[in-house]
Here is the input.
Amino acid sequence: MDGLGHLGASDSPQSFQTRVADGADSGGQPSKSINPDGTMTTYAYTRGATTGAKTVVTESGAGNGTSVTLGMRTTSTTNRFGTTIRQTSQAIGYSTGSAIFDHMAVTSIDNIGRPLTTAYFPTASSVTGDVAAATAPKWTTSQEFACCGVVTETDRTGIVTRHAYDSPAPPGENQQPGRNQ
Here is the structure.
């Protein structure tokens, strides 16, 4: 309520509340949001001292107003190129303990940060600069890039998909099918 007794938007049980994190790594990003149904999402931000990689821990679900007590925790790390190089998702507060539902690590990138090899469900992973190291993954995928995007993808079963792109027209030339033979 304000000084005149008027309800503000944050006083309503139907309101959505967001708090902004303070600290050098948050960059003005939210630290917590509380939904009208009482569920909440919390965010924590850290930056690697030597790698510069940014890690965001997001917890979503039922909470006590301060922290999530029953839900999901996702930890994502991005490198200096903005590529997500490591991500895990796990349960919070369930009888499964902290069971991991998703785990991936980008183990190689090209010179502009695009992921070349990604490992899934490794037994362990860690950030090692602009990529992550992964131990004994269940499967891997790979991509190859050219100027215009992905040219080859290999999925977890080894199936290769090749992509083709039309070559761009030289500057000042208009390519029209059937006319430029």
